[in-house]
Amino acid sequence: MSLPQHIPQVHAASSSNQFSTESYFQTQRPPTGLDEKVNRVTAFSDKWRQVGKKVVLVTSGGTTVPLESNTVRFLDNFSAGTRGATSAEYFLKAGYAVIFLHRLHSLRPFSRHYSHSLNPFLDLLTITESTSPDGQPSVTVDKKYTATLIPILQAYHTARAQGTLLSIDFQTVNEYLWLLRAIAKPMSTLGRKGMFYLAAAVSDFFLPDDKVAEHKIQSNKGTLSLEMDQVPKVLRPLVQEWNPEGYIVSFKLETDQALLIPKSRAALSRYGHQLVIGNDLHKRKYEVVFVERKQQPIGGILAPRKGKGDQRLLGAETPPVAEIELDGEKMFKPVEEYSEKWLRLADVPRDGREGEIEIEEVIIQELVDRHEKWIAAAQ
Ligand code: PAZ
């Protein structure tokens, strides 16, 4: 939370307005530079589609909610972008082209190893006095760091040379939402070869354009109350309209571990995508849980109940179907059974490997396999 001390309170409204995805995009202004970013994504997806490469969109970092349109203050969250930046590296290693949609100034693939707070890059460097006639000292990497640096640098140079990493930044939740919707379109041309890996920590609340103060909020009142509205759940249109063929992975973060599995199941049931990765705030770097349906749907999972032939649910092995009402609309919904798989660093065999193993390596190994099956199921 990036609020100065003199702002005592921010209240989320108890009865917030409900923006549907549609009304959100009808009423909230698109960010500047949207078209240019989307053009870059389109060119990138086209290039890799033509050679049949798998492409993953990795979202990463937190989103801000500006309190003023000439923004001095904003609400923020804890996410540093470690999950997204680390995962992007392992996706590249696994042969994917990566669109890295990240919060500005959060961690980035490769450079994240030398973030200013954990491992400052300048500490690696040594000045060596010149022995040559020009008298210029040179800068070298201290020998004790080179063994670690070389593979990182090699992977970075490979991604640059091959053009397999495209980085697109956002800052506010509004920018994030517009970008996600716009990027889903060019990505839909990839069909099942496209994956969405939604690791960003997206704000659940926002201030609509008509509630945001234009200028810096003055502190002379001594208190500040804000009524915030709920951010629409864009996962549903992503899965059902914007990109129905993509393999879609969302993350669920909780601080009460008991909620992880029920909330992950509820998300699967509600949005109909392929996989939820649950993680506890404090254990997220060494333990996650994969929650998925036992029986993977082929095609969309929730189908509007419009006509008889519209039950385009699940292909050959359709499980029993129940009728439910969702957001005022009648839908068919399969009676679902779920499976959970815990991934824990403590259980990973080291096989003689030295050094740290990152949980993202294990996550991506599991995902590549599932994504291959998703692609194969359509053929
Ligand atoms: O960015 P980070 O590595 O510090 O944290 C990653 C994370 C916890 C934000 C991510 O794993 C996640 O759970 N994202 C989704 C959060 C949510 O909307 O529930």
Automatic annotation (TrEMBL):
Ranges where the DNA/pantothenate metabolism flavoprotein C-terminal domain occurs: 188-285
GO biological process, one term: coenzyme A biosynthetic process
Composition skew (Polar residues), residue ranges: 12-30
Taxonomy, superkingdom: Eukaryota
GO MF term list: catalytic activity
Region (Disordered): 1-33
PANTHER family given in the database record: CORNICHON-RELATED
Identification of the protein by name: DNA/pantothenate metabolism flavoprotein
